[in-house]
Known about the structure:
serine/threonine-protein kinase; ATP-binding; kinase; mainly alpha; Kinase-like_dom_sf; 4 helices; nucleotide-binding; single chain
Amino acid sequence: xxxxxxxxxxxxxxxxxxxxxxxxxxxxxxxxxxxxxxxxxxxxxxxxxxxxxxxxxxxxxxxxxxxxxxxxxxxxxxxxxxxxxxxxxxxxxxxxxxxxxxx
Length: 103
């Protein structure tokens, strides 16, 4: 949610904690994101005593059946089309610059 031309400007926006949300975001979604981006670790969703349950139990996810997802009873909303050996979703890189000793 932080955009700027220079990395230092992005950093400044992150540290300020000020985020502008699109008008089509619901109040529940904004609340969830604000709690996930909380700078104070003692107040950030996922870092509190309830752990991930603070996120999963948030009202924005009220229609989600987490047990069904865990049990793989929910169909994926998008299944990408691909062919054998298709690597089009991966970035290109130059193998010469890999430090193979780190493997």
